[in-house]
Write the structure tokens for this entry.
Amino acid sequence: MNQQELLTELGKIIDEAKTAVLITCSENCFPRGRWMTPAMLSEYPDRIFCFSMHGNTELAHIANNANVSWLFQNRSLKKVITVTGLARVIDNPALKTELMETLAEHLAIFWKANIEQMSFVVIETMITNAEYFLPDSGHRTTVEFTKGS
């Protein structure tokens, strides 16, 4: 499996599941996972994007340690992709608009949980490594990503 094949599978899982778990590292070096609504944008195929609100814990974690992991699975649990990468927080109006157009219909919980806040940012994860796992067969494939791929 090459990078393009893995990214195609990842896109299919995101389209089907609509959610994934983002794992960051706390200031005390403890992993912390939370459900997010991720998206991929065609002009940045090696990146995963999601929204967060100013003041949320994951932003402090990323400021302290940019290394993150994502866990993706399809609904039948027959395909699992674990992604590791480097995250950064972006407050870019054009990117927010594009991402909002992509994710708007899937953000009901995000808006309910953050009803009193109006200021949000984008978390961008540049993929450095991904593992594609098929639990039924035990097959695992690891794909390394290079910067700018």
About this structure: The chain has a mean pLDDT of 90. The CA atoms of residues 58 and 136 lie 33 Å apart.
